[in-house]
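Hi R.,

As promised on Friday, here is the backbone we talked about, encoded as structure tokens. Could you run it through your design pipeline when you get a chance and send me back a sequence?
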């Protein structure tokens, strides 16, 4: 066990970001189910009580991890207010989610399934809606498109990410079985088709033929 003085120095030098970065490393290596305050403390070589200087509990730690995952999204700023079409904004955003799922498949689920009304998710979504409004959508259109596109992307990518953990133990599909339903090329195709449908029905108001 480290001397008391060394433990105190570790506690003082730790930051909230140290905790979340170490937690993401642990999740990616061992899986989300293995994340506990005790195991995270071992990852950081500190006493478990040292963590509570920076997070209140495990739920607060999860919120902090989601905050870092949002920061890790490769999102570029629009060239100018209203400079990008809304479809380009949605594509760029959800392809950034796709790329995050590829980089951090075990941690991605925490962001994908985080409730909309919690911090830091709510401000992130509010910025996204505001960007869509600046691109010419109404507030109602922007919120509807966000909800529908997020439901598609989260559902697809959570299943895809979970499948990566099982890839090494899966048996090859039987001859004649359906394959390729969850590859990332199909994610992009589905996103493009979804946006075309949303543009026709929600934005331009075209009624589908019966």
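Update: got your reply. Pasting your designed sequence below so it's all in one thread:
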């Amino acid at each position: 066990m480290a001397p008391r003085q060394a433990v105190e120095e570790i506690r003082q030098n730790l930051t909230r970001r140290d905790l979340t970065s170490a937690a993401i490393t642990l999740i990616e290596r061992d899986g989300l189910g293995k994340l506990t305050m005790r195991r995270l403390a071992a990852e950081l070589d500190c006493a478990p009580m040292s963590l509570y200087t920076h997070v209140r509990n495990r739920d607060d730690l999860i919120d902090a991890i989601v905050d870092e995952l949002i920061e890790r999204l490769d999102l570029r700023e629009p060239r100018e207010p209203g400079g990008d079409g809304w479809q380009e904004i949605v594509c760029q955003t959800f392809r950034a989610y796709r790329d995050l799922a590829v980089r951090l498949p075990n941690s991605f689920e925490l962001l994908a399934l985080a409730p909309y009304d919690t911090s830091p998710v709510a401000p992130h979504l509010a910025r996204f809606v505001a960007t869509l409004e600046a691109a010419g959508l109404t507030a109602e259109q922007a919120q509807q498109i966000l909800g529908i596109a997020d439901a598609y992307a989260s559902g697809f990518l959570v299943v895809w990410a979970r499948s990566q953990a099982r890839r090494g133990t899966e048996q090859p599909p039987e001859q004649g079985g359906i394959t390729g339903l969850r590859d990332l090329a199909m994610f992009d195709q589905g996103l493009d088709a979804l946006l075309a449908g949303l543009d026709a029905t929600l934005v331009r108001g075209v009624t589908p033929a019966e």
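One thing I noticed while checking it: DSSP finds ten helices and no strands in the chain.

Thanks again,
M.
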